[in-house]
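Course exercise 7: structure representation. Students receive a sequence record and must write out the corresponding structure in token form. The form below is the worked example handed out in class, using AraC family transcriptional regulator (337 residues). Read each field label carefully; the graders check that inputs and outputs are placed in the correct fields and that the protein name is recorded exactly as given.

STUDENT ID: A-19
EXERCISE PROTEIN: AraC family transcriptional regulator
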Amino acid sequence: MNVDFDGFLNSQQYSLLENCQRFSSHGKTYFTSNDEAEGFYWNYETDYFRINIHDSFIKKDSFLTMDLRQHKDFLAFSSYFKSANGECLSPYKALRSKSSFIVLNQGQQLRFLLNGQSYFQTVEIDFKESMIEDYLMGQFQLNQGEINRIFTESHKFNAEKLGKIAEEILHYHVSSIGSELFYEIKAKEWLSVIINDYYNHQEGSSTLNAADDLALSNVSSYIDDHYASDIPQELLSKIAMMSKTKLKNTFKLKYKMTMTEYTQRRRMAAAEQLLGSTHLEIKDVAMSVGYQSHSRFSALFKKYTGIYPHEVKRHHNHTGRSKCDKCQQLKKPSQNG
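STUDENT ANSWER:
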């Protein structure tokens, strides 16, 4: 563990938990409770990659800065946001539940705003140059230019696949020596999803001209901002400057789903965030994301998340971020590594 990382943990008032059984014993679990946040951070690192888990309740709006110059061993950083409400300010990207975030290390500073009174749960896998060289360049014969494009152009619809891997990591508690292979397998699977997603997207985009590709991005952005409204297809056709038929076909070609499914997924991600971070009743959450029918909302929520809304209410509660009885010993991170 490097000094910069320990300094970050100290600055956020994290303490190392001994005997914590919330996450796998292969990594280290930390806990913080301060004016801005309360929750856990788990870290597991090898010569090839690092896995981080954040599981916190954000009490008030908080700004975080990540200086990638302090992480010279890492070529790329990737996250799956199981629950999030905020923004990456530089470069700008909304942080939403069930979304992914991938960035190439170019020595830049990343600035984040996490909104208060919300839950922040992420699984991150950061890849070291050694893994990229041995795995992508060595085994798959990719050149540096291709690798850079993969991590700078990988688009947001790998989130569902990354989410499945993230859930497996979150719930893995086997402590045998051989089980460390699990993390290596999951890191490679995660990386494969990013690579395959990039090439599949390139294949779909290759049949679209630049103007159509931009027009479809405008349509998806409009849906992102107005998902709770009943958006007439005529309006989307005007935004794209396409016929309804062409818009339907090209949208599915680019995003691998229909506009209806895209809208429903966006609504369910927003609903899950509201269910986990507010005291709104389920019927009120349903209405806030565009559904008058409680049963219709519950059925779609189950379809896209695998659980019912009331189960989210039960599992996402503030006391779930408290230390367990096993977490008896606390100590600050060492400054000596």
